[in-house]
Design goal:
Blueprint lengths: L1 E3 L12 E5 L7 H15 L3 E6 L5 H7 L3 E4 L15 H22 L3 E5 L5 H8 L4 E5 L8 H8 L7 E4 L2 H10 L7 E3 L21 E6 L8 H13 L4 E6 L7 H13 L6 E5 L5 H5 L3 E4 L9 H8 L4 E4 L2 H7 L5 E4 L4 H13 L1 H18 L2 H10 L17
Parallel strand pairs: 2-3, 2-5, 3-4, 5-6, 6-7, 7-8, 9-10, 9-12, 10-11, 12-13, 13-14
Antiparallel strand pairs: 1-4
Pfam family, one: Glycos_transf_1
Protein name: Glycosyltransferase involved in cell wall biosynthesis
Keywords: Glycosyltransferase, Transferase
């Protein structure tokens, strides 16, 4: 068990201690939202302890926000574990996680357990065993999954006192699994901080259209569709290039190899660049003309789409699930059929041909998004979300177990 930013149980007299569990130390959508959640509770005067199963780039940022970070093994649900071949690992991770989590709970003695995503269910179970109030912040929405899978993933949520869903789509997906979850679910749209300074779109895009993808490199997220769309545009005589920002999950290196092979086979090595993981999307967005969010499957929300709008860039998004909700109401957003590279190319061609109007709309949309996804408003709603839970009164002494 590793400690970052302090060790042991917080000792601040009269302050509540909150244990926040998160499944990774990356810097993608839900990770960045988690930073704002942590800051909300720190700002409210709580001692915040964050537990994650591994160290990574998120860790120092959490410490900067005022949290103590504890690296503790836990079960993180992955698809490979939910198979007969993965059953043994599922059991061993569960046993190890329960033991390590129990030790941490005894050391920290939290007043509340906040689990960030449904992929780390053991923390909700441990909270129930210790009769502690618990909240789960749901960032997933497997609406297209088989009903039995949806119910299995949602089952641990029945033991949480409250649920926070990051979109109406996520909340409805939970309700489809277990109707009784609706009464304890509140929708809080993600707080998404924009760039420190907005770089205005280019005056024209006559030389080339600069396309951007930001996200995990996985078949689900569809970066291969961006490569195909750029190829299609160039076949039509429209100069286009693409930067692809993101990295693969461990074990998905084969997909990155496929992307590189596709770029080579299509003779796009001078037009498509894999930039790897970037700690912030803003430089890439500032250098781009339009962002594409081409997810093939359901998404609970669409942080990346919102980031494009906050950067005053037109965005092309799959017309599905939470992406539809995230980009709704923005004039610079175009919606396309999921999985259709030609439709993406059509949307990009239309944006290029109507650039003056689209870029002006993007500047107007930026102001709307900055208000709709205000970080301060998000943090206020997160603090409100624990109102009424049986937490230790402020100023009360902690009784050691």
């Amino acid at each position: 068990m590793n400690d970052l930013g302090g060790s042991g149980r917080p000792e601040s007299a009269g302050r509540r201690t909150l244990l926040l569990a998160h499944p990774s130390a990356d810097l993608y959508g839900s990770d960045r939202v988690f930073l704002e959640t942590v800051e909300a509770f720190v700002r409210d005067g709580a001692d915040v302890v964050v537990t994650m199963p591994a160290d990574g780039p998120l860790s120092p940022l959490l410490v900067e926000r005022g949290a103590q970070v504890r690296i503790v093994p836990t079960l993180v649900l992955r698809k490979r574990l939910l198979t007969p071949r993965g059953f043994g690992e599922l059991v061993s991770q569960t046993v190890r996680g329960l033991r390590a989590g129990g030790r941490l709970m005894r050391e920290v003695q939290p007043d509340l357990v906040w689990t960030n995503t449904i992929t780390i269910p053991l923390w909700t179970a441990l909270a129930r065993l210790r009769r502690l109030p618990s909240v789960v912040h749901v960032h997933e929405a497997e609406g297209s999954a088989k009903p039995i899978v949806m119910r299995a993933l949602a089952f641990p949520l029945l033991f949480a006192d409250r649920l926070i869903a990051n979109s109406s789509y996520s909340a409805k997906t939970l309700e489809r699994s277990y109707a009784r979850l609706a009464a304890r679910t509140t929708v809080v749209l993600n707080g998404v901080p924009g760039p420190s300074e907005v770089t205005a779109p280019r005056t024209d895009v006559l030389d080339e259209l600069r396309v951007l993808f930001v996200g995990r490199l996985s078949p689900r997220k569809g970066p291969d569709l961006v490569i195909e769309a750029v190829d299609e545009l160039n076949r039509r005589g429209i100069d286009a290039r693409a930067d692809i920002v993101g990295a693969v999950y461990p074990g998905y290196e084969w997909f990155e190899d496929e992307l590189r092979a596709s770029i080579t086979a299509r003779d796009l090595t001078d037009r498509v660049t894999l930039l790897g993981f970037q700690p912030t999307p803003w430089p890439a967005l500032a250098a781009s003309d339009v962002l594409v969010v081409p997810s093939r499957l359901d998404e609970p929300f669409g942080n990346t789409a919102v980031e494009s709008i906050l950067a005053a860039r037109p965005v092309v998004v799959s017309d599905t699930s939470g992406l539809r909700e995230a980009a709704a109401g923005y004039r610079a957003a175009s919606f396309v059929t999921p999985g259709d590279a030609v439709a993406i190319a059509d949307a990009l061609a239309e944006i290029q041909s109507d650039w003056a109007a689209r870029s002006a709309a993007a500047l107007d949309d930026e102001r709307i998004a900055a208000d709709r996804h205000s970080v301060r408003a998000y943090q206020d709603r997160i603090i409100e979300s624990v109102d009424g839970l049986p937490l230790r009164p402020r100023g009360a002494e902690r009784v050691d177990a």
